[in-house]
Write a structure and sequence with these properties.
heterodimer, A: alpha/beta, Rossmann fold, about 30% helix, globular, B: two-stranded antiparallel sheet, 18 helices, 13 strands, elongated, binds adenosine-5'-diphosphate, binds magnesium ion
Chain lengths: ~230, ~425
């Protein structure tokens, strides 16, 4: 008996208006994701992968349909509630790392915690835990603009998990990395889902990367064409 | 042909290169922003990150730009404060209440024409007049000075006491002034400036009058609008010039501000069609008309200030929007992480405000120090003695800078608010 799904998506549509033309990015996607899954989202460029990821992470709004995360209808939250909700429930990992270059690794990881009520020492402890989970415990005081791509992406993962969110979303996290760094990053994401019970949803182009997931989804022209569970 | 031996020119250029690099290092080390950044980084290292330290680190992340912004705000604020001070010095109008009760009656033909001394009883009789004294500008040069910037006036000492009622004098000193025909009554600013004390002598060489004065300081006053002037016995001037029948102007005090206009009209009327017609004005109007010789100071200084502020607005707004535009992606990431819109506004406002405030502090403080320590009297040949950057002027400069900081934050805040996380993430660094 599977656990109750953490993400429930029903008939999700997203249509962009560009002048007179409607661009359908998502054409009715329905999907359940259970806690602890490592979902890999694949598909050709422009098939709607990022759009789907953005909507379920609460940084974009759907045109129609419903997205419930832990029973909460995300589209019903206003801007401000959504920001709080993201802070508590979602960790983001981007293709281009998106760290703040003038901050050290530890400071970057600490950023999301500034919005919590944690004390300084609690914050520091959580930052240390997150950095050691990605194997950078000794690099906390390094400026991130002096780190390698692989290290930067690990810092980004630490930042994504430091608030202990249920959901980690990653949009082509290995797209800018060499093979070795990519496999490091994928191993970390895998262990987050396996040992820490995080639900990880990752968009990728790379079939090798797909091998790390527990489930593979294929999108084409905004529709879900394949849904393979490997668990 | 050898290619790898260093050319002699290279070797010669080396010391210059070191000099250049060293100069930059020095500039960098001497830059307060460097210290602010290091201080903040140390603070963060020990006490953890906070939204405040995040703002500071961000504000100085592009040090060259931050420095130039701070410097341009500083220079503009310094200039603004200087222009405002100049205007104040040039148009210092007597604003005290007692000054508004005083009138000056002069010859209608021109200020240089004297008035007959026998007019006094007639003026005294005008209803509303409380006190009258002759008031004759001597215009001498003090000691060896070629231009003396404080005025000397011949007055009737007894009557004059009722004219500068606001002037504070040490007990008994004024009586000494009345008693001694060669005594003078001196403003405290002049006493301080020349380090004089009661009993010292002041010698003046006449410029309008072909006579010199040798006066003994009997009393000192403070608390008037202009504590610089020297007053002495009209009798002495009369004796020295041998002209007993004329005065320069009349100094008149009226009972209340309400009657001032009536008194002016009545005095002017009293001497209509006489050989010496009179034009009476309030002391303030008199001084202002004196000032108008300097051209329309107010319009000039106002337009300079406006240009300065306008340039400053353009500079800060463009630097601020550049600084934020560069960081659009980062701000989008902060939004994704959960920062609220108002927190991002706060970051932008604090950064803009902080840089403007630092610039204002340096510029206004610098102007204050500079004008406080420079010998302006020497520099302007006595044209300006005082160039006091008053707290009020500094506050005005500070307010302008603060408004500017806020103004510069508006544009970037709006574009950050308008940009969704997804749009922001798409922008390139
Ligand atoms: N802001 C937008 N305006 C218009 N069309 C958009 C916008 N964002 C995405 N699209 C379109 O939606 C479709 C899906 O985009 P996206 O989700 O980014 O695809 P993927 O991530 O799979 O490459 C594409 O056809 C794309 O052109
Ligand atoms: Mg994409």
């Amino acid at each position: 008996m599977a656990a109750a799904p953490i993400v429930v998506i029903r008939d999700l549509t997203k249509i962009y208006r560009q002048g007179d033309i409607d661009v359908t990015a998502l054409a009715g996607v329905s999907l359940d994701i259970t806690p602890g899954e490592f979902v890999v989202l694949m598909g050709p460029s422009g098939s709607g992968k990022s759009t789907l990821l953005h909507i379920l992470a609460g940084i974009d709004r759907p045109t129609g349909g419903s997205v419930k995360v832990q029973g909460i209808e995300v589209a019903n939250l206003n801007e401000s509630q959504l920001a709080d909700w993201r802070n508590q429930n979602v960790g983001f990992v981007f293709q281009s790392f998106n760290l703040i270059p003038v901050l050290t690794a530890a400071e970057n990881v600490e950023l999301p915690l500034l919005l919590t009520a944690l004390s300084r020492s609690e914050r520091r402890r959580q930052v240390e835990t997150a950095l050691s989970l990605v194997g950078l415990a000794d690099r906390g005081h390094h400026r991130t603009d002096q780190m390698s791509g692989g290290q930067q992406q690990r810092v980004a993962i630490a930042r994504a998990l430091v608030t202990d969110p249920a959901l980690i979303v990653a949009d082509e996290p290995t797209g800018n990395l060499d093979a070795k760094s990519a496999s490091d990053v994928l191993h970390i994401l895998q262990s987050l889902s396996r040992s820490a019970g995080k639900t990880v949803i990752m968009v990728t182009h790379d079939p090798k990367a797909a091998g790390y997931g527990t489930r593979e989804l294929h999108l084409e022209k905004g529709e879900l064409v394949e849904n393979v569970s490997k668990a | 042909m050898s290619t790898n031996s260093p050319s002699p020119f290279r070797l010669l250029a080396l010391p210059f290169r070191w000099l250049w690099v060293g100069l930059w290092r020095l500039l960098w080390l001497g830059n307060p922003l460097t210290w602010i950044e290091w201080g903040t980084r140390l603070w963060v290292r020990w006490f953890g990150l906070s939204q405040h330290s995040f703002v500071i680190v961000n504000a100085v992340r592009n040090q060259r730009r931050a420095t130039l912004t701070v410097l341009s705000v500083a220079v503009s604020c310094g200039l603004l404060v200087t222009v405002m001070t100049l205007q104040r010095e040039l148009t210092i109008p007597p604003e005290s209440e007692s000054a508004s009760l005083r009138l000056i009656a002069r010859n209608k033909v021109s200020l240089a024409q004297p008035l007959p001394a026998k007019q006094m009883p007639l003026i005294e009789k005008v209803p509303g007049v409380v006190a009258v004294s002759p008031f004759t500008y001597f215009g001498g040069n003090f000691r060896e000075e070629t231009i003396t910037s404080f005025a000397q006036f011949a007055v009737d000492p007894v009557r004059f006491r009722d004219l500068i009622v606001e002037g504070k004098v040490a007990e008994g000193d004024y009586e000494d002034f009345i008693r001694d025909r060669t005594a003078c009554f001196v403003g405290k600013d002049t006493m301080d400036r020349y380090q004089l004390k009661v009993g010292d002598r002041m010698k003046f060489t006449g410029t309008f009058y072909p006579v010199d004065l040798d006066l003994k300081i009997a009393a000192v006053y403070t608390g008037t609008v202009d504590d610089r002037n020297v007053f002495f016995h009209h009798k002495l001037l009369d004796e020295l010039t041998g002209d007993l029948g004329t005065v320069g102007t009349w100094y008149v005090r009226v009972a209340s501000a309400d009657v001032a206009n009536d008194v002016i009209a009545r005095i002017d009327q009293a001497f209509e069609n006489s050989s010496a017609e009179v034009r009476t004005e309030t002391e303030r109007a008199f001084q202002m008309s004196f000032m108008s010789m300097l051209g329309n100071v107010k319009v000039l200084t106002m337009s300079i200030s406006a240009v300065v502020v306008f340039t400053l607005v353009l500079v800060t707004i463009s630097t601020m929007s550049m600084a934020i535009r560069e960081r659009f992606r980062e701000l989008a990431v902060l939004k994704a992480i959960g920062f609220q819109r108002r927190e991002l506004f706060g970051f932008i406002l604090a950064e803009s405000f902080g840089l403007a405030a630092l610039g204002a502090f340096l510029g206004i403080g610098g102007a204050w120090l500079f004008w406080g320590h420079i010998n302006l009297q020497k520099l302007t040949g006595g044209f300006l003695i005082y160039f006091e950057v008053t707290p009020r002027i500094m506050a005005t400069g500070g307010i302008v800078a603060a408004l500017l900081g806020m103004l510069a934050a508006i544009g970037p805040s709006i574009s950050v608010a308008r940009t969704s996380v997804v749009e922001g993430l798409k922008t390139l660094d």
